[in-house]
């Protein structure tokens, strides 16, 4: 009895895409962390509600960094020809994702009373980041960079000659159909 162990193409694309998304996110995390702490310690040192302002500003800077990395690397095979529409969608998802760490900071800082820089960093850059990352990946994959949407760029399929002289199309990761995470 032979068992078919081949992984469907959309599942095969998930792991590399997650790794790339994670790498882009890591860069965004470093950007967010540096900007947040610079704002907290230097720029907004004496400003009331500086934690919320620093969280919002640092997240907006990281969104810009992540837009470039996700568009041109992590989801490059699925990017839309209409960069403006895709950028607006990315920004909408990112803003919604920004609300998650803002809520975490607000709960930690104002509701629970944890007002140290360490507590603010944990609520923003650990709890908020983890929850926001899951939210953003899902919406980037299913909506912003969904391969099922019209106007997508697809990599051209390569043709390969066989011994019999016929040709067949070789699929590439960028041109492979991807059903997303639902139904996996």
> What kind of oligomer do you see?
single chain
What spatial form do the alpha-carbon principal axes imply? elongated
Counting DSSP H or I runs of 4 or more residues, the number of helices is: 4
The helix content is 55-70%
> Uncertain spans, ≥5 residues at pLDDT below 50?
154-162, 167-184
Count of domains: 1
Structure in words:
With 184 residues, the chain is mostly helical. It has one domain (12-148, 155-170). The protein contains four helices and two strands. It has a two-stranded antiparallel sheet. β1 and β2 (167-170) form a beta hairpin. The protein starts with 8 loop residues before the first helix and ends in a 14-residue tail after the last strand.
Short description:
By secondary structure, the chain is mainly alpha-helical.
SSE order and pairing:
Elements lengths: L8 H35 L6 H25 L8 H29 L5 H28 L13 E4 L5 E4 L14
Antiparallel strand pairs: 1-2
Tags for this model:
184 residues, mainly alpha, two-stranded antiparallel sheet, disordered C terminus
């Amino acid at each position: 009895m032979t068992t078919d162990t081949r992984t469907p193409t959309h599942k095969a694309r998930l792991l590399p895409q997650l790794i790339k998304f994670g790498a882009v996110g890591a860069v965004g995390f470093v950007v967010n962390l540096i900007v947040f702490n610079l704002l907290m310690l230097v720029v907004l040192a004496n400003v009331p509600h500086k934690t919320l302002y620093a969280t919002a500003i640092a997240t907006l800077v990281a969104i810009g960094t992540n837009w470039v990395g996700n568009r041109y690397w992590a989801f490059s095979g699925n990017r839309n020809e209409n960069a403006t529409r895709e950028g607006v969608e990315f920004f909408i998802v990112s803003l919604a994702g920004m609300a998650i760490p803002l809520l975490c900071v607000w709960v930690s800082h104002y509701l629970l009373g944890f007002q140290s820089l360490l507590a603010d960093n944990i609520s923003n850059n650990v709890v908020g980041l983890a929850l926001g990352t899951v939210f953003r990946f899902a919406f980037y994959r299913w909506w912003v960079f969904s391969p099922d949407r019209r106007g997508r760029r697809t990599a051209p399929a390569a043709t390969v000659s066989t011994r019999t002289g016929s040709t067949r199309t070789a699929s590439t990761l960028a041109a492979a159909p991807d059903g997303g995470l639902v139904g996996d």
